[in-house]
Design brief:
The chain contains 13 helices and no strands. By secondary structure, the chain is an all-alpha fold. The chain folds into 2 domains: about 50 residues, no CATH class; about 220 residues, MetI-like (MetI-like fold, Orthogonal Bundle), CATH 1.10.3720. The radius of gyration is 24 Å and the shape is globular.
Length: about 290
Amino acid sequence: MNLTHKKLTPSKVVTYIVLCFWAITTLYPFVWVILNSFREKGLIRKDSFSIPTAGNGFTLDNYATAMDRFDFGSAYLNSILVSVVVTIVVVILAGLCAYGLVRYRFRGRGLLYSLIMAGMMFPVFSTIIPVFRMEAAWGIASTGNRWLSLLAVILPQIAGNLCFATIVLMGFIESVPIDLEESAYLDGCNVFQVYFHIIIPAAKSSFATVAIFSFLWSYNDLFTQSFFLRYPKEKTITLLLNEISSQAGVNYGLMAASVVLIVIPVLVVYVCLQKHIIKGLTAGAIKG
């Protein structure tokens, strides 16, 4: 058996050094936060770089204080509910829209595609005021009703993610061989059967990628939520972190513990679905 050894060229060495440096600078801040979340608050400013051990500043009081002072359960529920609903609706609508634009030719198709592209060019900051006034006129914003307020956040988040998701899915659906669909039509399938049994399985990595990014963007959104969610029972996890940062002051231990508690769902989602993210992005780079 002949084993081929790749030569370590100077360019590869430089690339590895840059990547290692980037990884360290990216991961170290979060490691620092985790370490100091278990450190007594009075010791963080004196020694924030060592590993806390029993008898040397290690404590769980920061987590106990965070759970006691702030309602993480309700905030988690609100954030997960908003993010899951946004993700499901975006994937369904973007998938159907992308399939229709790719496989059908109809009057106004070019205009519709141009509008979708234009929708990605307008930042949320430029539309938040008219959106807020429109939803207030509908009676779902600033009502004090928890579920209506969450709906008021869900709708603009769906609109904000829909254009990007549609463009991404169009690129993947275009790569699916049309022969598969023609065979399904010959076997008597209708358009919805073709979509759910041919298109979705063939482009599942792209759907997974869109779903993951939609969830993370919705979960981490602070700007939109700060406009529509104003009562304690409506707060999401990002609003809770904003509140903690304003109340905790120099209590860095409490802030570190709160950050760790808030980031946990994001890490779980990423760790469980990282293969889909990498596969989807790689496939997009090849097929696009």
